[in-house]
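In the laboratory, one determines a bound structure by crystallizing the protein with its ligand and collecting diffraction data. In a computational setting the workflow is compressed into a single prediction: the sequence and the ligand go in, and a structural description comes out. We illustrate the idea with zinc ion.
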Amino acid sequence: MIPIFDGHNDALTRPDYTGFVSGRPGGDLDLPRMESGGLRGAIFAIFSPSPDERMEPLPRDDEVIEFEYAESVAQPEAAGYATAAAGRLAALASSGHLRLVENVAQLDECAVSGPPAAILHLEGAEAIDTELEALDLWYAAGLRSLGPVWSRANAFAHGVPFISPSSPDTGPGLTAAGTRLVRRCAELGILVDVSHLNEAGFWDLARLESGPIVASHSAAHALCPTSRNLTDAQLDEIARTGGLVGIVFACPFLRADFAEDRDTPIELIAEHARYVADRIGTEHVALGSDFDGALIPAALGGAAGLPRLLDALREAGFSEDQLRDVAWGNWRRVLDAWWH
Ligand code: ZN
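The predicted complex, in structure-token form:
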């Protein structure tokens, strides 16, 4: 079985996360399903909710679907929430259910045996103060990946609102603190993730030349022109830096009609992978499910269905060698580059 690495899940912040070890009826990802799907490594995101979590669709008189821009969350609230969620992952690691991976030697071991690799990721850097003092503590606690923003504004950058169809060019770029954050992440060895960053922020980050540009859970704007997806120009820039796109499995970011429809075929994930591979090369394609954070095709059925996705990728023309890279090797390469 080909070992699989997945670039984004929200399993730690689901209300029923306590069922992660034994398995749980709902959701997409837990330990038994990781095992049966061949998922040997994953990036576990910590997302701190906005004060008001409801994001209502805005009334519009055209065919555009737009949701309210999420409220910003203050640093003390985010820090409290995020440290507790990180503690959940630390507990799963100390009990031997997952291995908290901080370097590629550990990651390589996880591809073969032992508990699956878990990489600690902050989805939105609200838990970090603008002096970046907390960043060193998070690094010491195992943080190895960070997205400056979720789809809202914070002290570092501006996330894309959810608008479909829309360009990702929705607002201002990185703040001065955001630039400092990216530079410091590069110094420490923390991967910086551009999923949820708007286009101005993307190009600001690209100009810093900090490392390969990674979009952990996004898809191709050419096939599904939502604000959350990557334009061809962004894909080209990702390739130039040696980065990757973790193809997201979220139905509304895959479908040309943006529908929240579970009856979305797995083949559509493979179509996005094929598109990105044809444009910029297979070495820039990887997986970034958004398990437990989005509506995933029912035919996949969560992490246990990953072998079916590999079959769809084979059908889409990926060779066995290419599949090994898409499923594992490309993530390994970019993590190694950022972790130095
Ligand atoms: Zn996300």
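The chain is about 35% helix and 15% strand. Keep in mind that any predicted model is a hypothesis to be tested, not a measurement.
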